[in-house]
Amino acid sequence: MIPRYSRPEMTAVWSPETKFRIWFEIEAHACDALAELGVIPKEAARTIWEKGGNATFDIARIDEIERETKHDVIAFLTHLSEIVGPDARFVHQGMTSSDVLDTCFNVQLTKAADILLADLDALLQALERRAFEHKDTVTIGRSHGIHAEPTTFGVKLAGFHAEFQRSRQRLVAAREEIATCAISGAVGTFANIEPAVEEHVAKAMDLAPEPVSTQVIPRDRHAMFFATLGVIASSIERLAIEVRHLQRTEVLEAEEYFSPGQKGSSAMPHKRNPVLTENLTGLARMVRSYALPAMENVALWHERDISHSSVERYIGPDATATLDFALARLTSVVDKLVVYPEHMQANLDKFKGLVHSQRVLLALTQAGVSREDAYRLVQRNAMKVWQEGKDFLEELLADKDVTAALGEDEIREKFDLGYHTKHVDTIFKRVFGRSA
Amino acid sequence: MIPRYSRPEMTAVWSPETKFRIWFEIEAHACDALAELGVIPKEAARTIWEKGGNATFDIARIDEIERETKHDVIAFLTHLSEIVGPDARFVHQGMTSSDVLDTCFNVQLTKAADILLADLDALLQALERRAFEHKDTVTIGRSHGIHAEPTTFGVKLAGFHAEFQRSRQRLVAAREEIATCAISGAVGTFANIEPAVEEHVAKAMDLAPEPVSTQVIPRDRHAMFFATLGVIASSIERLAIEVRHLQRTEVLEAEEYFSPGQKGSSAMPHKRNPVLTENLTGLARMVRSYALPAMENVALWHERDISHSSVERYIGPDATATLDFALARLTSVVDKLVVYPEHMQANLDKFKGLVHSQRVLLALTQAGVSREDAYRLVQRNAMKVWQEGKDFLEELLADKDVTAALGEDEIREKFDLGYHTKHVDTIFKRVFGRSA
Amino acid sequence: MIPRYSRPEMTAVWSPETKFRIWFEIEAHACDALAELGVIPKEAARTIWEKGGNATFDIARIDEIERETKHDVIAFLTHLSEIVGPDARFVHQGMTSSDVLDTCFNVQLTKAADILLADLDALLQALERRAFEHKDTVTIGRSHGIHAEPTTFGVKLAGFHAEFQRSRQRLVAAREEIATCAISGAVGTFANIEPAVEEHVAKAMDLAPEPVSTQVIPRDRHAMFFATLGVIASSIERLAIEVRHLQRTEVLEAEEYFSPGQKGSSAMPHKRNPVLTENLTGLARMVRSYALPAMENVALWHERDISHSSVERYIGPDATATLDFALARLTSVVDKLVVYPEHMQANLDKFKGLVHSQRVLLALTQAGVSREDAYRLVQRNAMKVWQEGKDFLEELLADKDVTAALGEDEIREKFDLGYHTKHVDTIFKRVFGRSA
Amino acid sequence: MIPRYSRPEMTAVWSPETKFRIWFEIEAHACDALAELGVIPKEAARTIWEKGGNATFDIARIDEIERETKHDVIAFLTHLSEIVGPDARFVHQGMTSSDVLDTCFNVQLTKAADILLADLDALLQALERRAFEHKDTVTIGRSHGIHAEPTTFGVKLAGFHAEFQRSRQRLVAAREEIATCAISGAVGTFANIEPAVEEHVAKAMDLAPEPVSTQVIPRDRHAMFFATLGVIASSIERLAIEVRHLQRTEVLEAEEYFSPGQKGSSAMPHKRNPVLTENLTGLARMVRSYALPAMENVALWHERDISHSSVERYIGPDATATLDFALARLTSVVDKLVVYPEHMQANLDKFKGLVHSQRVLLALTQAGVSREDAYRLVQRNAMKVWQEGKDFLEELLADKDVTAALGEDEIREKFDLGYHTKHVDTIFKRVFGRSA
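YS: structure for the whole thing
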């Protein structure tokens, strides 16, 4: 995690404090189940919760023990026995380090997923608010970066809303993928511990028992999780690039918010750089890149090897923290985006009505002009606009062959933007369940 | 698609014949809706189905027209008018090429997904059969490639079954992602066509209407689809690598089936190479790699650019055909896998009982021996096995300090493999819903 | 290889005809060396060349034999014996299939690299021509998509020339990486064949002997080769995206060539889509993606496994053919690019002189105005330009506080574009070794 | 950088201290050149070096200023003026932040490359020592994980040496790629600064001037750099996987060094896990993954956007630190690798001479036996070895049909391992330039 691109809540998920707290809970819940099964004294299970439940684990002390024992779980258990006393000997009975490590990693990932889901909710809210605000703000739709037909800025944002709704659904599914618990021993056979313990811990920690673990929880689950983050990051990139395009000097239909006091803005007022969305573009590349090592992690040898571990030390914190930061930054960009409807209109009018040429062409055909003739009529007027800067509507109205086929009102009607926005309500209802 | 790694049914999905057939259906269903709306004559819609419904489209002729018009959809429509006659002028009214192209691509992907789902079902069936066959075939479980504790070969296969069940679920979700239809015009505003047409075509073709399209169907859907294929491929790799390990000369617990007549096998009977699973390892790398350009395809500019198109011409056919081939090949490997239970047993016995050292250690502790003493006792006997090739059980029985703490029966009991397999039924019930 | 994105010369490199021809040459050169060493009769070596040297290999016949023998090299050798007669028994003595397959693959890759080098030369030539043509065509330089300072279009193209010069150098190095030959037997020990044979074949085929092969030529070489293609593709993407930006409706400083007769262009004259460079963007994604499986191919097990083979069947032809096509297409785009210097000038003037605010600020400071005051002076005039559309130069000349510090000539001089282009010659000399 | 996978020297390269020191040097050298050109007083340039040359920059103070100014370079310059005094106003004249930032990044990358080159040298030394130590240690060569023909462990290591020699060459080239300096202003035109300044700074800092920069140094250079690291990582993975295979319980031809006191090793003496090389496998995945965002960074918009920056904050430190750590760890693994020649021999003998079947087959053919008969003879004896555990040599000597064709000495000679090792000297000479 790079501090610059991490936020406190997500950083906390990956802190040693959180990790040891989760380890404790796994062990303590397991003790409850072991006590219930009669493997350890019920009294001991109670003591463990009482003494450890509110204890502050001393990270420095655990590190000190680990330097000696070269084993993180043993170091923790040793420290726990310092806190809990003799009953600590009942902790971890029949369990394997991976039972604790893998279940903890999944708990951390579900916590991370919950933060990301909240991030998505905030983003969806911002997109919805701005979409309704600009539901009727007419703007030119572009294909290939070239003017195509009018749409509204609200429809554009509605499209992103629909995309991030899908992101949310995917993340819910991805969270479910990794919300599992394994307490199954050295090769997953439950030789030294009853399946009931796993079931109890799973339930207590709001996880599902892993159907078959092999010391480790299978890594196809994590591959799917990180691949999903990569897809969400790609959607962030799409919106980021849209903003960057809109902020281009020549387009200037919207801008990232720039605080009045922000230095350098006034002497070169045109020089407001979309640095936030550029940054998001880069962050998206990173989150996406983590999908690959996650997929390579799947093919562990036999019941497990430990090659996945180093990878996860990077991508566990980095992918979630970066995506969290990116979603929050994007929400802020959307929330405060400065929109210039008048520039949108000006761009739309750049070619003086040419954007309606298609409709005129169609109208001529429907009025009985042959396709070839209609094309020729539109073309000769279009070229005057294109080459001489004339106004398309005026040219058409002055063209006898055109007016012979179409009345003035009819021609004017073809320049009505309402034609293009008549289904905006339908689209909004699809996306938001409401159009107002 | 490389013929060597493609199968006919999947190849057919990507054939021009299939594509044009789907194009026709989209257009013809749209005509039905347009007729219902009164935009075109009902008679025309009927004629289109009657003349085009069973027509064979002449690929060479369409190619010829395309060479002239440089536009694939126009070429098709021109050819269609040669088949349908004058009523063809009612086809494609108010539609955009992308309406046809994107909806068709999604139909092809859903067809591909259906084939892959059937592949997964076959694989699951093979895994289930072999898992039950070897439910009680004891074998050594390995972590880090090193002997750990016993398990059964059936449990190993059950783990893969659970993994491919997850693959199936993911693929069902991925299929749903791309089962959408868009008929919304140049920038997705339905300016020239009613949303009702999209709804009708969607329903008729078993798709969902795309909530917001922007001339194109948003590519986050496809990114998710191809990322999912990449994860499934990674699971294939895990099983392939397991087989490759088992077939190693020194391990030889299982082998890919080798037909009796297969050349070269008898003069060098040890030289049976796991070429199928090696091949699967490579194919998995390819399918995985396609996830990345699919994710880079998401951030199209504004309402669309066409940079995704070339990518999809590669990965659409290649990813689905390769995965289809790989799943079928894997199913065949599993189905015919030659398993050597006696080699499994021999490998398990390689260190003459040492695999049980952990249980003996625990028993000594539970019998009141201090942890340090117990460790020392186990260690001195273990080293005789390791260094001098002695038998662990015999050594323990001959060690007075050990027998002072544990009775002979108790010691022998620690060497019982049943201890490790007692929960196999539980695991099978979890995976298959039955243990017999 | 997708026909649509492949060119004949590269396709030929990957044809069965080429492959078998290379196989023959490897075998025949090896026979020469074996004859020289006295292992086989010199007469036989001569016969093999005489009969096979100009023979046309019958692909269908070889396929037929392969279907029977399930072995491609044996099938070829059998067919060769049909052509050469009894002396064919001296072919392939002491050799392994991989000796032929791996050396052939490297020959194909070097041939492919040679085509790509020629492609790069053509691209460099086009870039050089256009760079000199527009050496002095002033245009606005942009950072973050926002106007920054003036530069020339020639300088922009010179930058791309420098980048593709680097591409060329990298490709030369990459070609050298894979220009090796291995004829070293089953595990690379030369047990059955003298190293002299490898040395002879290498020399005859313009390759270097592989220092240590292990049945196969080590795949780090190929990883480096394909990674290099991925980097070159990324440079293609940069130029493609530059063109796409320049062609945006609002920018329109350059356009892909659009033939006068190209349909649809006149009725919507603004609707000329940069489809070639969009296509290049997608192709770049594909070529880049192939670097990853190539890297995963490196870690073959022990002396070799065959997991790399399927990967190479895809990426060998696909990466080289796609890059060849992309380079040729890019060259054509550059060659015919329609440049609009007047639009460049208009865009540069969009903010009526504001682009020179930085120079004015500096001049005021150098004239003794405090930094704060200078900033305030520039700012108040800049804001009039920005908000009211005034002309920056006129405002400055009308501002008493400004003219108190700077003379009119001095102020006017700050608006001289020559200031920005004075080192264009230096840059051109660096890149092209000449400035005219 | 994850502390666990980073080493101090590399960490220092990426520390704020190092960064600010490099910034200072760039600025101070630029002042020298500016003084030489008469732009600033020579006295000032001297003072800057005198006061700043040995100064300790106060990171906390710089951070404090940056929080205020929101600009890292300005914060540094402000702090520098606190150290240098009034002459500091001559620093950075005509320069752009990117001039400092990009040149500094390249200096850091060259420093990182130098450390990596030293790492590679150490690894090469270790490989050479162990290769000569085991030059004649016979071991079975394996293809597909299956026994093929004998080789020596020294030859295996020589192959890795050759591979890491190539890694070294590639890294030298990659270092050259990014050893450039740009001081060219806002869009690279040298409008505000003479090219001579860039040339001076480049020379002083042992860099080459960037032929054409565009505010930034072109990112194809960095893409090539990180792609090269990815290829080197893949070679690390190959050696790591080799060790993991050799350490498998059933193979046990070599082991990572395990210190005598290392806990847990004696009670389960077989349970020594190749955790270092498993770890290296994971680290290789990470380094490889960074190549992709580096390639995506190439296509910056126009003269630059800042999307690359966030990516480089991750991969600059992470890729170099991880690779440094991995190379050092690998060197240690190679250095201390515990090799078991007797296990190698035992594995080689596993199929009692069968490994020589190929040579016997050939000898029979050369002795005039028809191919079919020779095959049958070898086969019937081979099957007795395979199925009944007989000794291949004894069986052959007892087979009248065999001895009719070949004398006993001749048969015995076919079992001579020297046959396979006779060219080891040649291979060593190729790799090391010496065979002893």
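YS: worth flagging: The first strand of chain B starts at residue 138 and ends at 143.
IM: good catch. Also The two ends of chain B are 42 Å apart (CA to CA).
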